[in-house]
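Hi R.,

Here's the input for the magnesium ion complex you asked about:
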Amino acid sequence: MRLNPALEVARKDLLSFFRSKSTLFWTLAFPLMMMLLFSSMFGGRGAMFTIAVVDEDGGQISRAFIDALNSTNVTRLIQFPNEAEAREQVLEGKADALLMISEGFSKNLTSGRAAKLLLYTTEDPQVRTAITNMVKGFVDAFSEEYRRRALSELERTMPPSIPAGGMTLSREEVIGFLETFARPVKVRIASIAKPEVTSETAAYWGEKGHWITVMLAYTLIFSGMVSAASLLAYEKLLGTVKRMLTSPASRWSLLAGKLLGGLGILTLSQVVLVALTILWLRPEVNWTPLLIPLVLAGDLASLGLGFLVVELSPNPKTANEAVVTVGIMVQFVSGLYFPLEFLPDPLRAVAEVIPFTWAVKALDGLLVMGRGLESVMVPVTYLVVAAVIFTSLAVALFPRWARVE
Amino acid sequence: MKALEVIDLTKVYGEVRALDSVSLHVEEGEIFGLLGPNGAGKTTLMEIVAGLRTPTSGSVRVFGLDVLEEGREASKLIGFNPQETMLYGDLTGWENLRFVASLYGMKEREFRRRVEELADILGVKDLLRKRVSKLSGGQRRRLSLIASIIHSPRLLILDEPTVGLDPDARRDFWEVILRLREEGSTILLSTHYMEEADELCDRVAIMDRGRIVALGDPEELKRRYGGMAKVVVYPKMKLARRVEEALSEMGFRPSRLGDGLVVEAEDPAGLTPKLISELSARGLDPERVEIRSPTLEDVFLNLTGRPLMEVME
Ligand SMILES: Nc1ncnc2c1ncn2[C@@H]1O[C@H](COP(=O)(O)OP(=O)(O)OP(=O)(O)O)[C@@H](O)[C@H]1O
Ligand SMILES: [Mg+2]
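And here is the predicted structure with magnesium ion in place:
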C-alpha cells in the first residue's frame, strides 16, 4: 500500500492534536467546564423565569405570598418599588413577567373578599403560557392553603350551632357551605408588548437542549478557527513546511489533508462534547439528520476562515492572535451565550450578517424548537455559501502562503 | 552525468545580492562542500536547488532536470536536510518518518525496510518510539537526516548538518556521510567549519557575500591560496619581548598569534630545528614550537582579507 500524503497529513495532525494538552483544554475541557458551571448555576432544575414583583399592598399576607413564590425555585423574584420600574425591566428583557400585588390584597383576604393579582407577561406565546400556568398553579395552591387555614380557624372559633333565620345551622353545615366558595385569590392576566423577547430568551441558560447547540457551535466557531490556524501556523514555526514543499507531494493534497485533519478534529470534539452533555444534562432535544449538513457546513466555514486568516497574516504569531480575537468576538455576538436582543443595535446588525450567528439560530431551531427543513433552509444555505467562499479563498491563497521566501 | 549544474545563478533580496552569478557543478558520487561565513549565500543556493526558492536569474539542473521547469521530477531525486531539524515534537520518530515517507508516495513495506536499515546505520533504533520533543539535539539531527534520505535520493543536500554538535558527534556524522557516499549518493553540504570542508569534501567552493571566491580540491586550494607554512614559536611569557627581538635579528618578521610568534617558512621542517638551536644558544629556549600548514581558513583570509571565524562571531 502506498502511503497517501493527504491521509497522512490528516493522521499526523490528529495525533498531534490529541497529544497537545493546550489544544485539548480549549477544545474539550473548557466548553465542558462552562457547561457544568453554568448549567448548574442556572439551569439544572429546568426552565427558570425572572419575575419583577411590585408589592403595593405591603401587608403580612402579601409578604407571605412572595416568600412562598420565591421558595419554589422555579422563579427568580426581583422586587421593585413601583410599577414603572418593573415594567421597564420586562421591556428591556431583563424579566419575563411583572406581577402586581395591588393595595388591599391582605385586607381583602382577611375580610373574606377576593384578592386580586395582576400578572403581565411578554407577548411571546411560549413564555406567556409557561409563566401563566406556573403562576396560576402556584396561586391555586396558595388559595387552597389559605382557605384551609381560614376554615380551620373558623372551625376552631365558631360556636357549635348558629341560629340563621328560622332554623339553626350546625358548624359542619356552615363550613361545608363555605368550602364551595373557590379561590380567594384571583389572577388577572395581561401582557406587555415586547415582541423581540422570544422563547430563546427564557431558553438560554435554563434550556438544557441549548447546551447541545453551545457545544456544537463553540466547536465550529472557536475550535474550528483556532485549530485551523495552528494546523497551518505550526508547520511554518517548525519549518516542516519545507519538508512538504521539497517533496513531490502536490500542494493540493497537502491542503486537502489539512482540511480533512481539521474536520476530523472538530467532529471528534463535537461527538465527545455532545455525548458528555447528554450524559450530564439529559436534555430532551429533537435529533434530526439535518444537523449533519448544518454542522459540517459550519465546521468547514470556520476552518476555511481560520486558514484564510493565517494566509493573510504576516507571521504565525499574528495569525494565532488574530484568530483567537476574531474567534472570541464572533462567539459572543453569535447568540451563543445570550440572545441577540441584548446587543446594542449596531453590534446586532453586524452579528446578523455573520454566518455563525445563523448557525446558532439554526441549531437551536432544529434541536430546541423542533423545527424542520423549511425553517433551517436559509441558515443552512447561507452557511454552506460561506463555507464554500472561505474554503475556496483559503485554497486559492494556499500556494502563496506555502512559499518559504 | 553531472549530479548538479548551477549556471550563473543570481538571487537578489532588495538591496542584498544573496547570490551573485554563481556557477558550479557537482559530479555524481562527489562530496561537495560550500564553505563560507554567515550570510555568504549557502542556504540560499541550497534552497534554490531544493525548489524552495526561485532565483532572480540563472538555472539549476539536477541529473539533467531543470528544477524550475521539472521541479516535481527533480524533487524525487533530491533529499534536502535543512539547517533547522524540522520534526514534529509531539510525534515519535517513527511517526515523523512515516509522514515524510508518505510525501514521497513510498510503499508501506518499502518504508519499513528502509527505516530499519537507516536506523541501524545511524544508531537510532531505540529512539524511534520516543517523542521527538524528548530527544537531544544530536539525536534529532540524526532523525532529521534519516527523514531526508528515507526515499533514497541520488543527490543529498545537507545544510550545516553538524552545527551545534560536539566534536565526537560531528565525527560520527562524518562517518555516516561517507557511508552514504559509498552507497552511491552524491552529497552537497554547507558548513562554516573549515575542518569539515577539508576532511570530508572532495571539492569545496569557498563563498563570501554571494560569490564563489575559490573552488577546487581542498589540498589544491591550500597550495594555491594558503600561502607559506608557518612555524609558531611559543616563548616563556617573561621572555616574549626578547624572543621577538631575537627572531627579528635572525632576519624574520615575526607576527603575534595569541601567545605565539609566527614565522613564515618555505621549508618548515628544515627551519624548525635551526630556530630552536639558535634560540637556546641565546638562552631563550622556547616553551614549544609548532608547525602549521596552510588551512582553508588561510585561504579564506588571503582571498577576502577577512578571517573566516571572526566573521562568524
Ligand atoms: N528571505 C530573505 N529575505 C531577505 N534577505 C534574505 C532572505 N534570505 C536570505 N537573505 C539574505 O541573503 C544573504 C545570504 O543568506 P543565506 O541564508 O543564504 O546565508 P548562509 O550562507 O546560509 O548563512 P548562515 O551561515 O548564517 O546560514 C544574507 O545577507 C541574508 O540576509
Ligand atoms: Mg544558512
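One thing worth noting: The beta strands of chain A are 49-55, 75-80, 97-101, 115-122, 161-164, 167-170, 185-192.

Cheers,
M.
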